[in-house]
Glycolipid-binding domain-containing protein (Streptosporangium longisporum), 193 residues
Amino acid sequence: MTFTTPPRTAAWRHLDARTGFEVVYFHPLGDGHRIEGWTTAVEDGVTWAVDYVIEVDAAWVTRSARIGGHSAEGSRSTVLEADGAGRWRVDGEPAPHLDGCLDVDLESSAMTNAFPVHRLGLRPGAAAKAPAAYVRAVDLAVERLEQDYLRVGDEGSRRCYDYASPAFGFACRLVYDESGLVLDYPGIAVREL
């Protein structure tokens, strides 16, 4: 299953878990994409902002991510580099706890849920595990996050996946557009553009 080319820009409004907004721009990059994004939010009385530049290859496997975080506690940054085969470096240091991960997933971003669905190309009824290098919004800590995707079918031009993150005890149905960007992430974000 293939998706159409992503739009030049997209935006999401955060829901329920936090109040805020995310804006991204997609740039063709040789045999992949460079994605530049900004997210701002208020969550549990704490304000934060995250900016990022993520590069993915033609198969939508994450190759690098430069992330900046800003809060009342100050500013931070981190750089993730991946070899495309599941080995990572965080700020130049090997990160064996991320071995086998092919995607980066930012806690602050609805957009990063596009990476596994593009990469996996699941047909209806197919399921896959998609562990990710998960970057926290406030302190930019990098953890391994186990995730499961099950392609459940389509609703017109919309593609639906059952998503689960066992570590958070969280499961929902994610709805994507024809370009593979999430439209509805229940309790987290809804696409505005």
About this structure: The chain has a mean pLDDT of 97. The chain has one helix and 17 strands. The longest helix spans residues 114-120.
